[in-house]
Design brief:
Nnr; about 500 residues; Rossmann fold; ADP-dependent NAD(P)H-hydrate dehydratase activity; UDP-N-acetylmuramoyl-L-alanine:D-glutamate ligase; metal-binding; eleven-stranded mixed beta sheet; seven-stranded parallel beta sheet; elongated; 2 domains; alpha/beta; 18 strands
């Protein structure tokens, strides 16, 4: 379960710039990078199946295909039965053509038609399309992809599965369903979000001895540039940002949190939010909710204090008392909810907006751009906030998250497969999560967890990123231990407790 991928991540335009700069400094050629990539594919094949007997490689006409030709040559020289099927000849006067000619010189053969449907191999390598795909798959690539997916073999995609948009993670038509994706030179933004998680399999990385750090620094310094630098975050690389607790600490030192949530009949949302705050380490938690929820909350977790959100005097005192406010889970969008929302927009400390609070923000256009806040929309809420469709949000989640930040300020956390966080300085991709988390209440738990991290002194961005990583890893662990079907939000609570303690 431990992850070791790099923490820097780039889009295809940035990767193209890297390749261009490499070629410029190496006599106009990037063939050495292609050679290293092909060698990496060869090693990966032997790592996955040391006793491999037969390999099919499906190659396109571009650089991705060139990587495939080099891997095929090395397999051939190793005495392994390799068959290479090409969509079309390698592009003339290209590095791919050089790789193609060397493969032929080593005794290799290139087939221009697909093998019979009864044919099979131990391992199949997808070297059809690389990072440049921006449209639907066209012939003959559609037939090749369909054939690859029918094969009963281990499938390795080079760089990205063919058919996947390397920037957005969107699949618009056909796409190879890989067991392994071997990413070259730099991690691509589209590998971990949107549709990608259903196609990439296990993602690994080869740097090709290329240093991407200068490009990250350049992006960070270029405030007027077209792209924000992007970070890849998962539990192992946020451990140092977990809250610390002094031996002398008391409950007041660990933060006071007010959760405004839970209309009558929706009290469970307030409870899950409260449990997220408790297990995340918050010192004192009050829930402002419908008074009819009190007895259920007290029975569920007596550590949670309650306030009647219809009592203006008590609510005002609770707001003055709190270090952090979380608002929205199960709140509904009635007149009372609007009144509560309006009160919180004037709060001069940190606020986490979720669920119905986001819907109210979209509907009323009432928000304080400069307020210290975190917005936690799922795609439907994001679409309402931007007055667009869920499909448009899905088409480019990075752009949607950035536009939400531009419009609303603070820190924006766009939930979904491959959650994205934007603080206006960085985009951060959260490389955690599990299909076990596809059930109600998970977002309520996350809101409470993030509020607890804020209350313990984390910055807005750190609270959002660390909260998402802990929450996603908790879901992964819970699903691994108990199965991904039938998991409920409350099941994650004890895993969250373990993870915020660093184990």
């Amino acid at each position: 379960m431990k992850k070791t991928l790099p923490h820097l991540i780039f889009n295809s335009a940035e990767v193209y710039s890297m390749e261009h700069d490499y070629a410029k400094s190496h006599g106009g050629s990037s063939f050495m990078l292609m050679e290293r990539a092909g060698e990496a594919v060869f090693r990966k094949i032997l790592e996955i199946k040391p006793d491999v007997k037969t390999v099919f490689i499906f190659a396109g006409s571009g650089n991705n295909g060139g990587d495939g030709y080099i891997a095929a040559r090395l397999l051939l020289e190793r005495g392994i039965d390799v068959s290479l099927f090409a969509t079309s000849p390698a592009r003339a006067n290209s590095e791919a053509e050089t790789a193609y000619k060397r493969y032929l010189a080593a005794g290799g053969r290139v087939y221009t038609s697909l093998p019979s449907e009864s044919a099979n191999a131990d391992i199949v390598v997808d070297a059809l399309l690389g990072t440049g795909l921006k449209s639907d798959i066209r012939a003959p690539y559609d037939r090749f992809i369909e054939f690859i997916n029918k094969l009963n073999a281990i499938k390795i995609s080079i760089d990205v599965p063919s058919g996947l948009n390397a920037d957005t993670g969107v699949v618009s038509s056909d796409c190879v369903i890989a067991d392994y994706t071997l990413c070259m030179l730099a991690l691509k933004t589209g590998l971990f979000t949107a549709d990608a998680v259903d196609y990439t399999g296990e993602v690994s990385y080869e740097s090709l001895s290329f240093d991407t750090l200068p490009y990250y620094k350049k992006l960070s310094a270029d405030e007027g540039g077209p792209y924000l630098p992007c970070l890849n975050r998962y539990y192992e690389n946020i451990i140092e940002d977990l809250p610390l607790r002094l031996k002398s600490a008391n409950k007041g030192d660990c933060g006071k949190i007010l959760i405004i949530a839970g209309a009558f009949g929706m009290g469970g949302a307030s409870m899950l939010c409260g449990i997220g705050a408790l297990r995340g380490g918050g010192g004192l938690i009050k829930i402002a909710t419908d008074a009819r929820n009190f007895s259920a909350i007290n029975a569920y977790a007596p550590e949670l204090m309650t306030v009647d959100f219809d009592n203006a005097s008590e609510l005002g005192k609770a707001l003055s008392w709190a270090d952090v406010v979380a608002i929205g889970p199960g709140l509904t969008q009635n007149e009372r909810a609007t009144y509560l929302f309006d009160m919180v927009t004037k709060f001069d400390k940190c606020v986490v907006y979720d669920a119905d609070a986001l819907n109210l923000m979209a509907a009323t256009k009432n928000f304080n751009f400069l307020q210290k806040k975190i917005l936690t929309p799922h795609p439907g809420e994001a679409a309402r906030l931007l007055n667009t469709t869920v499909e448009k949000i899905h088409d480019d989640r990075f752009d949607a998250c950035y536009r939400l930040w531009q419009k609303y300020g603070g820190v924006v956390l766009l939930k979904g497969a491959g959650t994205i966080v934007c603080d206006g300085v960085h985009l951060t991709l959260i490389n955690e999560g599990s299909p076990a988390m596809a059930s109600g209440g998970m977002g309520d738990l996350l809101t409470g967890l993030i509020a607890s991290l804020l209350a313990q002194g984390a910055s807005l961005n750190t609270a959002a990123v660390v909260g998402c990583c802990v929450h996603g890893r908790a879901g992964l662990m819970c699903g691994s231990d108990n199965g991904v079907i039938g998991t409920k939000a409350g099941d994650l609570a004890l895993y969250i407790r373990r993870l915020v303690n660093g184990f």
